[in-house]
Amino acid sequence: MTDYNHIKEKFQILMMGAIDGELDAKQQQEFESLLAEHPEFFQEYQEFLQLKEKTTAMKLKTPPDELWDTYWIDIYNRIERGIGWIFFSIGAMILLTFGGYKFFKAIVQDAQMPIILKFGTFFLIGGLAVLLVSVARERMFTYKSDPYKEIKR
Q1: pLDDT at 1
Q2: Alpha helices in the chain (DSSP H)
Q3: pTM (2 decimals)?
């Protein structure tokens, strides 16, 4: 049975070459002799010929111009917003880190300020930062899943 599998595998390789017109004279003769010796291969060969005819005749449907207009606008907006968010995030991190360092340094060095006021200020600023990040994150995820975001008002 392995001999038959080897013959069938050889036939399939030659068949693909024959369909694409890539066989030399010796290979073409070998292919034709395999077809003559094994009539069951002829059916497979015919099916592949029909498949090639159909795929060659196929034409891709050209999408309407409106679809391309919205496609390029969406791609441009995504790239533009992505780069904008990256720059905004980097700038915000630099400014907030520097401002937080200066503010923290001023509060810690102020000996006149009571310790409870220092803790209260620290927690107030920390809580505002957490809420700001939470609201921004929620808005981003809501915008991504909003089914009405493409509707113009």
Answers
A1: 53
A2: 2-20, 25-37, 40-57, 65-109, 115-145
A3: 0.40
